[in-house]
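Input for the complex:
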Amino acid sequence: MQPSQYINLDKAKALVVDDNPQSLDIMVGVLTSFGLRNLVRKTDGKEAQEELKFHTFDLILANGTLPEMDGYDLTRWLRREADEANRMTPVILVTSHTRRSQVEKARDCGANFIVTKPISPAIMLERILWVAKGDRMFIECDSYVGPDRRWRNLGPPVEFPDGRRRDDQSIELGEPEGQNMTQDELDALIKPMRSIA
Amino acid sequence: MSEVKKSRMKPRLGQLMSQKGGMYVAEALKRADATLETLREPSLTGIDDYIAAMDALLISGQDEATVIERLYAKAGDIISLSGAERNQAVEIAARSLCDLLDEASGLTPSVVAGIKVYIASIKLLHRAPDNPELQQPILQGLASVLEKQRGENRAAAN
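Predicted:
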């Protein structure tokens, strides 16, 4: 995310769900600051579900813990049973704390991202930019429906713990051939030069 | 094995965001920080209320499961608003309290004592300036309380 990057959320429509009114104000305040004007606020999962049955959204922000229907179940319903118009809508879940018993549920619900509270504007905007880019595949199978969970480069595969593959070049640099360049010679290499043309 | 269907996600959000108009990322973040500043005092007052509610819950006489559940919710609410604090210690303490309550099987005397230490610590850290020298011993103490409780849980499970 570059400070000079341009964003336009004027025409986007978002659904924001949180049962804590102050936390809802914070989320709505941050999104409004990003230029998002078309916002629908809901305080429980069932209300949000009803809203999603009749209206299309470009972004959903929901708290993980909600009365009636939590954010994880709401996302799972959205991915599996909602109308085609909303089924692939980006979902960012926010959570204060994930219970041990809910870690798997959170992982498998189909959300694009899970962000921990307190809300940080920089992290929220970065996640919005990531979901807008749409560079993840949408996966549908019996056990999971949602964005591909293996989209990020997680570093070297576990079978190569040192981060090197068998056919990688040696990292040994060896002894230098010839003398080091002087500082004057290095300066001359990077000195700006007028084009011949 | 079930069939796996893959399709390309093309969110409308991406198309809308790339349209003309809007603002720079730097401007958006500046505006968001200004908005959060206006919400700072109400958030701190909210934390005051949640701390008072936790004190009240401990002496409410409600059944153990309800007390644990409600204390957990209040600790989560404190985390939600803790961005308003000038230090991260309140967030860390409240998150640790959530761990303790999530793993507690009941309100045993040692769990209640632990919760009281947490509430007292959050009171000390709340609205305090960012001073790691003062915060670190408190947070280390809370980590010890959680570790002790986990040890007791393991012993009870065996």
